[in-house]
Design a protein that fits this description.
This protein has three domains: 33 residues, no CATH class; 119 residues, TerB-like, CATH 1.10.3680; 77 residues, Orthogonal Bundle (Helix Hairpins), CATH 1.10.287. It is an all-alpha fold. It is 68% helix and 0% strand. The protein has twelve helices and no strands.
Amino acid sequence: MGYLIDYKYYKWVAIVPGWILGDFIGAISAFLLVRELMMNKQGQVTYELALLKICSQLIKADGQVTENEIKFVRKFFKETFGSRKADSLFKELKSNTQLPSDVNSLLRIIKEQINPTKLYAIIQFLYAIGASDGKITNQENEYIYNIGFQLGFSPERLEAIKNQFIKTKSRSKKYDQKTIDCLNVLGLKAGASDEEVKAAYRSLAKEFHPDKLSGMSEGIKNLAKEKFQMIQDSYEYLNKNYV
């Protein structure tokens, strides 16, 4: 026996009994409840899918879609979620009609499903994509900056994360490239004092400690561990060699 009413109208029909049982508040509650149930029935947009959509937009941000960036994202998702789920996510990226395109909606999905203390790992991942072809372009940086700003990150925090993925050519006659790279990782310039080096390390070590990412996927945690180790190695090198 066929349905008398298309399922997409159920949420509106639910208003009637909702109104009878609880006036205006009951009607609204019934509408929202049924809408949520129908969304779950049709397939909720997960943070993984929303993140993949953001990745695809980032790759196109500078108008140059490189093979390295595509391979990096595919490899990351397969290592993180397994080949079967990753392939399913890539297919759903093209076919899911509920998946929004605007950044605000995508970030809303991510924020609803991820603890705020773990959001910095998302920014790390995006900068890793941008750097996968050897450079982070201005357009890619602006796209990531916009996302970071909407997630509540200050310019200083975003710069600290970006510094983990870029290298600055040394123009100093006093310091070698290794020293400049280590200072850059800590967000410092040549000539920073010992006290500034220690303060920067303590702040970054607290901010980006991978223990904060319990419950996140292995791929994201591994990336965070790699960058945390870079912070530690940079500090240890400067502690021994920086004058």
